Amino acid sequence: MENNNNWNFNQVQQPGIAQPVAKSFISGVFSWMGIALAVSAATAYVFGTDMTYMQYLINPGKGLSVLGYIVMFAPIGFVLLMTLGINKLSSTALTGLFLLYSIIMGMSLSFIFLIYTHGSIFQVFMISAAMFGVMALVGYTTKTDLTKLGSLLFMALIGIVIASLVNMFMHSSGMSYIISFIAVIVFTGLTAYDVQKIKNIGSGVEMGSDGAAKMSIMGALTLYLDFINLFLALLRLFGNRRS
């Protein structure tokens, strides 16, 4: 599981124009997130349903190929590169990395088509979209400051990562179920928190600047990760495995 909730920028609030700017900014964030999800979904479907492409990721009888291992671990590197290099990369470079990242993530996600039925993947995706949409609306409209909630959820996220690493060696189905259940709660809450954070950041950006463009991409990356992790957690809980 991955999530990036540490990117932050000190922006000067501009009373009077903050609300229109925030709406325009968050609209751009969701647009980039939607584009990335569409790219990942299309890539996952192509690789997951056509063995001509899947054979590039899996060596029959031998497990993952070299490319298979790359697409499994490369997304973490992309997230670190974009997060740590945001001040050095241009908005164009950051956008290119984000789109390339969405392709690599799609290839990584293609393995779920080998594990779960196509019908259950689609159903869980729609459920995830509905839950994400509701919590995004909550985060955008609520007047309650979710900062403390975000801090608690981030600590819970660290716990989930540690527990997941431990369970890689224990192979406990019971622990896997508990981790997935907690992950659903955590990423549902993080969705609301991240949307509110992005809205607040958008209130002080200078629209049209390179900095605003980079913040828009990083906001899209954050929400993309929230959605993907929520989807995968729900899939582990409710997805029907192939016989």
Spell out the blueprint of helices and strands.
Blueprint lengths: L17 H32 L1 H4 L3 E2 L3 E2 L1 H19 L6 H19 L2 H4 L2 H24 L5 H24 L2 H30 L7 H29 L5
Antiparallel strand pairs: 1-2
Describe the protein's architecture and organization.
- The chain has 243 residues and is mainly alpha-helical.
- It has one domain (18-238).
- Helix content is 76%, strand content 2%.
- The chain is built from nine helices and two strands.
- It has helices at 18-49, 51-54, 66-84, 91-109, 112-115, 118-141, 147-170, 173-202, 210-238; strands spanning 58-59, 63-64.
- A two-stranded antiparallel ribbon has the order 1-2.
- Helix 7 packs antiparallel against helix 8 and helix 8 (173-202) runs antiparallel to helix 9 (210-238).
- The chain is globular and about 55 Å long.
- Residues 8-17 have low confidence and may be disordered.
Key terms:
9 helices, two-stranded antiparallel sheet, mainly alpha, 243 residues
Q: Tell me the span between the first and last alpha carbons.
A: 26 Å
Strand residue percentage: under 5%
Task: Write down how many β-strands occur, each being a DSSP E stretch of 2 or more residues.
Answer: 2
Broad structural category: mainly alpha
- Total helical elements: 9
Estimate nothing, just give the exact number of structural domains: 1
Percent range for helical residues?
Answer: over 70%
